[in-house]
């Protein structure tokens, strides 16, 4: 049986599924705090929403990720006396950028952008829930060993090829794509449906790193 019941369901509903059943769309962190007016707004972040909604219908498997921090998370500058947003500190798991408080659990900032078709998701992965460690990647926390469970889900679904879109290109999209390639997935990042922060050259470094890891970068 495999994925056949899922594929037939979407075809019966008239959705134009054009991708193979072993392909998935991974939509990274399209949340209010990463869009205009948000606590950690990515320039032009909301511009990706309409295009992501359109491309969702090409895929039989759609996964959304959601930054979901408890209040007082250790990655927030406000949790470290005398520190400012974007300072870099050493944590037990390595270097950590300190961020403005953002995507706090159950807050408006943590919610998906209102125009995003989140009802189309087969799975929502919430990350950054451990107060002691940040999680950029959809696959691992920032210690690079603690899994989110996404890999197991994709393997169970028979997914081998991933297209990644969302926010921000140089952080959560980048880390997710590199981890996916390291795990053996065939990974493509659609830059037309991503936006970056570009913190001290982070965007150029991320693009180079993704290509070096074997990620196909288009757009």
UniProtKB/TrEMBL annotation:
Keyword ATP-binding: no
EC number, as in UniProt: 3.5.1.19
Cited Pfam families: Isochorismatase
Keyword Translocase set for record: no
Record keywords: Hydrolase, Metal-binding, Pyridine nucleotide biosynthesis
Positions of the Isochorismatase-like domain: 24-217
Biological processes, Gene Ontology terms: pyridine nucleotide biosynthetic process
Gene Ontology molecular function, alphabetical: metal ion binding; nicotinamidase activity
InterPro entries named among the record's database cross-references: Isochorismatase-like_dom, Isochorismatase-like_sf, Isochorismatase_Nicotinamidase
Pathway where this protein functions: Cofactor biosynthesis; nicotinate biosynthesis; nicotinate from nicotinamide: step 1/1
Enzyme class: hydrolase
Domain of life: Bacteria
Family under the similarity heading: Belongs to the isochorismatase family.
Identification of the protein by name: Nicotinamidase
Record organism: Nereida ignava
Lineage: Bacteria, Pseudomonadati, Pseudomonadota, Alphaproteobacteria, Rhodobacterales
